[in-house]
Specification:
- The two termini are 25 Å apart.
- The chain has helices at residues 6-24, 41-61, 83-99, 116-137, 146-159, 216-223, 238-247; strands at residues 178-183, 188-194, 197-202, 209-213, 233-236.
- The protein is built from seven helices and five strands; from the N terminus they run H-H-H-H-H-E-E-E-E-H-E-H.
- By secondary structure, it is α+β, with helices and mostly antiparallel strands.
- It has a five-stranded mixed β-sheet with strand order 3-2-1-4-5.
- The protein is 44% helix and 11% strand.
- The protein has two domains: 6-142, Four Helix Bundle (Hemerythrin (Met), subunit A) (Up-down Bundle), CATH 1.20.120.450; 165-247, SCP2 sterol-binding domain (Nonspecific Lipid-transfer Protein, Chain A), CATH 3.30.1050.
Length: 250
């Protein structure tokens, strides 16, 4: 698997923002987004562009606390057809903020690594998943670079314990049950449920339940609830996988 740097993440995030803008340009902003119930395409873009600018502001200030997005102005256009270009402009705003700071500089994050570098990785995968949402909304099959998607699977496992707003996580524990995530590209992970939560490791071993997919992108989309388990080859205790997915929806 690729060894990522902060600069790599920042560049890839910018490219993904641009790709999402290109994907959504000239499409109906009122199109429903099935993977984000209650949102249309315009709401999805507004959310994503806002998150980029919110993160950029905190990185720029090396914030020691969470900024309240509700009190901030992000310059959303009144004409919703201009949303894709507004989203595109956010790539430069985010990249400038990320590149201006030492990746090791301490700051507030909602995850487990309170440094600037956490945000470059998080914003890459935030954008990847929402770009997939947009593509699904307009009838395009999402494609994610294998290196990005493989890191995205691990990033999901890394941030999951810190998503304290998700009620299912309080019950995410077990007695050694294992869930294996395997891609035909060669990437693989084994999740082990423990009394105090879960751990994961890179592994090609089968688990009590094993999910097999063509590529890491398929596993990333399943982990984030953008696909259903019955779209995959499942071996073993499928009820265990269903339980995991129902408790890890963030």
């Amino acid at each position: 698997m690729k060894l990522w740097t902060h600069a790599d993440y920042a560049r890839a995030a910018g490219a993904e923002i641009t790709r999402m803008a290109d994907t959504t340009a000239r499409h109906n902003m009122s199109a429903p987004t099935p993977t984000c119930p209650g949102w249309d395409l315009g709401a999805l873009i507004a959310h994503t562009g806002t998150i980029h600018r919110w993160a950029a502001a905190m990185v720029r200030d090396l914030a020691d606390r969470r900024y309240d997005r509700r009190t901030m102005e992000f310059g959303e256009p009144e004409d919703r057809t201009a949303y894709p270009e507004w989203l595109r402009a956010g790539a430069g705003i985010l990249q400038e903020a990320l590149s201006a700071q030492d990746p090791d500089a301490p700051m507030w994050v909602w995850g487990g690594d309170p440094h600037v570098r956490w945000w470059s990785r998080r914003q890459l995968h935030e954008t990847v998943v929402h770009r997939a949402d947009a593509e699904i909304a307009i009838g395009v099959a999402p494609e994610i670079d294998e290196d990005i998607a493989a890191d995205g699977v691990e990033e999901f496992f890394d941030v999951l314990p810190h998503a304290t707003w998700a009620p299912g996580l309080r019950e995410l524990s077990g007695e050694g049950e294992t869930i294996s995530w395997q891609a035909d590209t060669g990437a693989g992970w084994l999740v082990t449920l423990q009394p105090d939560g879960f751990s994961y490791e890179r592994s090609w071993e089968p688990g009590d339940v094993t999910v097999r997919a063509a590529a890491s992108s398929d596993l990333q989309l399943l982990a984030w609830g953008r696909r259903r388990a019955d779209d995959y080859s499942i071996e073993g205790d499928s009820a265990l996988l269903d339980w995991w997915l129902s408790h890890t929806a963030i």
